[in-house]
Design the sequence.
């Protein structure tokens, strides 16, 4: 995604110290025929909640400072405040479940391209170098939804600089994108994607390490029935 960069912000600034190898990053976009829609972003650590709960009791682990629940909530609140000021964005909400360790941010958009601007601005504010080039478009006339994605070689280079124990955090971690539509999907260009039985949703799931290493491309062009 470049929404994936938004997750990167949360992962590395807030949650990376307490992650184990079992976590999920989930991006859901629900598109309406008129071009408006909703987004839900989720980081799910519930598979490792017992270990995470134990780590949260520590001051630091593997050289990283462990953030408090208050710190994590503060970061989520700041993200919500920023999104509420973003052009074309409304209905911004967040949830934080510190029993199962699941964090979500959701919002509505007037045009899917509004998401691209948000990502760009968030990265600039945090001085984070992009690891990929990604953007979303939706053509209301042709009813075509597109996501263009291109990994940047420096992402793999930077990942390879990490210590083995830090790389291990990403073993088994997954990224899932789910796109839902009002109309029936007639085609999906990415061979790794799956169209639902209802023909109104497309899902693509991959390992995060494959994304980092450029082994999978999550670009997709989805054609809807006219």
Sequence:
């Amino acid at each position: 995604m470049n929404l994936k960069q938004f997750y990167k912000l949360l992962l590395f600034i807030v949650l990376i110290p307490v992650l184990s190898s079992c976590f999920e990053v989930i991006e859901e976009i629900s598109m309406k025929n008129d071009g408006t829609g909703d987004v839900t972003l989720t980081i799910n650590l519930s598979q490792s909640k017992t270990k995470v709960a134990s780590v949260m009791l520590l001051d630091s682990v593997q050289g990283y400072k462990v953030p408090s629940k208050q710190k994590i909530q503060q970061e989520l609140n700041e993200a919500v405040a920023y999104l509420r000021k973003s052009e074309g964005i409304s209905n911004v909400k967040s949830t934080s479940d510190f029993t199962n360790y699941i964090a979500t941010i959701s919002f509505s958009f007037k045009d899917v391209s509004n998401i691209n601007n948000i990502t760009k601005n968030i990265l600039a504010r945090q001085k984070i170098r992009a690891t990929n080039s990604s953007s979303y478009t939706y053509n209301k006339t042709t009813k075509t939804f597109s996501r263009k994605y291109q990994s940047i070689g420096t992402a793999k280079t930077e990942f390879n600089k990490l210590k083995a124990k830090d790389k291990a955090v990403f073993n088994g971690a997954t990224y899932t994108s789910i796109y839902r539509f009002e109309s029936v999907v007639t085609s999906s260009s990415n061979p790794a994607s799956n169209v639902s039985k209802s023909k109104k949703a497309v899902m693509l799931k991959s390992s995060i390490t494959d994304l980092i290493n450029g082994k999978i491309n999550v670009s997709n062009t989805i054609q809807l029935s006219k």
Q: What stands out?
A: Residues 3-224 form one domain. The chain is about 30% helix and 35% strand.
